[in-house]
Amino acid sequence: MVTRLRMAVRALLLLTPVALAGCGSGGEPAGEAAAPVASMGADGAQEVRVEMGEFYFKPQTTTFKAGQKYRFVLGNVGTSPHEFTIAPPRKEGQDEEDLDAMSLIDVDQLKAGETRPVDFTFKDAAPAGTLEFECSYPGHYENGMKVAIVVEQ
Question: What is the distance between the alpha carbons of residues 7 and 3, in angstroms, rounded to a whole number?
Fold first, then answer.
């Protein structure tokens, strides 16, 4: 009887760290740790992960600071190539040349499964509704592959 009790206590002690490791913090479901909004690189760049797929962007954050260097780690988890552009929202009737001229950054041909870091610093503040991440490949933007961002002073 004592041996069974000891075995049960040992099993409990061995399994407790495993059970606790699966628990999230801050209300996340078990197994899903909260991703940091951004991490600071040795060069002072704040790292921000941006997942893209058909037809969405999932950035860690949508609020940035003017003058801060960012390292966007772009990850295409989709099945088709995508583009990462920071630009004002499109207006009806704009052609590709006009869109390219208005872009602050344009990372083309991010292949399916590819991850690519891109450094960028916002020079000026941009209130809500004035900038977005977008993919301008045919049909992608129109199918919702865009997300509004804000740049604070």
Answer: 6
What's the pLDDT at 1? 52
* Per-domain boundaries in the chain: 1-33, 35-152
Q: Report CA-CA distances (Å) from 90 to 52, 96, 142, 149, 150.
A: 19, 10, 10, 14, 16
User: Could you please report the per-residue DSSP string of 92-120?
Assistant: TT--HHHHHHH-SEEEEEE-TT-EEEEEE
Strand order from edge to edge, sheet including 126-134: 63-65, 146-152, 126-134, 82-87, 105-110
Say if residue 24's pLDDT is above 80. no
- What pTM value is reported for the model? 0.73
Average pLDDT of the chain, as a whole number? 81
Q: How many angstroms separate the CA atoms of 151 and 122, rounded?
A: 7
Backbone angle region of 129, left / alpha / beta, with phi > 0 → left and psi within -120 to 50 → alpha: left
pLDDT in tens, 78-115: 999 999 999 999 988 888 788 889 999 999 999 999 99
Q: Which fold has domain 35-152?
A: Immunoglobulin-like (2.60.40)
